[in-house]
């Protein structure tokens, strides 16, 4: 889901576009995302709001969020509550390479990808 820190104005535009695109998908389509704060959490909330199915990818280690910032721990609690399905993956949230690998697995499991990008280069 791209960068995690859009401006409030940008986020309103993104939410509207996501709502429209999600409503245009076949009824059986499932949204898939990797747990995280910012856009992943907000995307999960929009998926839930429009009544679509959601699958959340979580780190296999149950303590993966123990050292994460509060906003990440909040997302880790809220997203599974919104999800109809959860898939556990072996990755560590504090290891950028592991997160990239989890994102690659997420993308390879999609038939359609909705990405949000602010045009800035990656931070890694």
Name a few traits of the molecule.
three-stranded parallel β-sheet; 3 strands; 43% helix; 124 residues; single chain; 4 helices; alpha/beta
Mean pLDDT: 80
Distance between the termini: 16 Å
Spatial strand order of the main sheet = 1-2-3
User: Would you tell me the structural class of the helices and strands?
Assistant: alpha/beta
- Over the alpha carbons, how many angstroms does the gyration radius reach? 14 Å
Question: Briefly, what is this?
Answer:
The chain has 4 helices and 3 strands; from the N terminus they run αβαβαβα. The protein is an alpha/beta fold and 124 residues long.
Explained architecture:
The protein has 124 residues and is of the alpha/beta class. It is 43% helix and 14% strand. The protein contains four helices and three strands; from the N terminus they run αβαβαβα. Strands 1-2-3 form a three-stranded parallel β-sheet, sandwiched between helices. α1 (8-23) crosses α2 and α2 runs parallel beside α3 (70-82). It is globular, with a radius of gyration of 14 Å. The relative contact order is 0.19. The model has no long low-confidence stretch (mean pLDDT 80).
What topology does this entry show?
Layout: H1 8-23, E1 30-34, H2 39-49, E2 53-59, H3 70-82, E3 85-89, H4 96-108
Parallel strand pairs: 1-2, 2-3
Helix pairs in contact: 1-2, 2-3
